[in-house]
Write a structure and sequence with these properties.
By secondary structure, this protein is α+β, with helices and mostly antiparallel strands. It has helices spanning about 90-105, 105-125, 135-145; strands at about 1-5, 15-25, 30-40, 45-50, 65, 70-75.
Length: about 150
């Protein structure tokens, strides 16, 4: 059974082995395949649209399919964990941790890192804030100064 290494949209695991359990030819092209795969970690499923480099059955292939197939689309999408490009590095570091925690269904860790993201972002907007300034006070002051809406 062929496998592909993907980021799992369900457990958030990076480079998880997905076994291709089922596939069918697309009516659009002989080498285009729809495939259903299962994560080796959480057993969550994905639907893939891929192109094969030659005509073969991915479910009868043994081993890594990455050299034999190009994935065009996958559903559901893997969670996005990167920060927007304009995010300051100091804020992006904790933002990414919050997104990764959310992706693996760790809401307490995600909440803690999201709060830290806000604390660092408020500090970027007003460097006079210190560790003793509470988050709601920071947000109220930034709103009053019209630095946030
Ligand atoms: Zn998974």
């Amino acid at each position: 059974m062929g496998t592909l290494l993907l980021t799992c949209p369900h457990c958030g695991g990076q480079k998880m082995a997905f076994r291709i359990l089922y596939n069918w030819k697309s009516p659009r092209h002989e080498l285009e395949r729809w495939s259903a795969g299962i994560c080796a970690g959480c057993h969550g499923g994905v639907l893939l649209l891929m192109y094969l480099v030659r005509n073969f059955d991915p479910t009868n292939y043994e081993g890594d399919l990455s050299q034999h197939a190009v994935i065009r689309k996958s559903w559901p999408d893997a969670p996005k964990t990167e920060a927007p490009a304009y995010t300051p590095d100091l804020v992006a570091d904790v933002f990414v941790q919050a997104r990764k925690a959310l992706a693996i269904d760790a809401p307490d860790a995600a909440g803690a890192m999201a709060r830290k993201t806000l604390e660092r972002a408020t500090h970027v907007l007003d460097s006079s804030f210190g560790p003793g300034d509470r988050l709601h006070t920071r947000l109220d002051k930034l709103a009053a100064a019209q630095k946030i809406t």
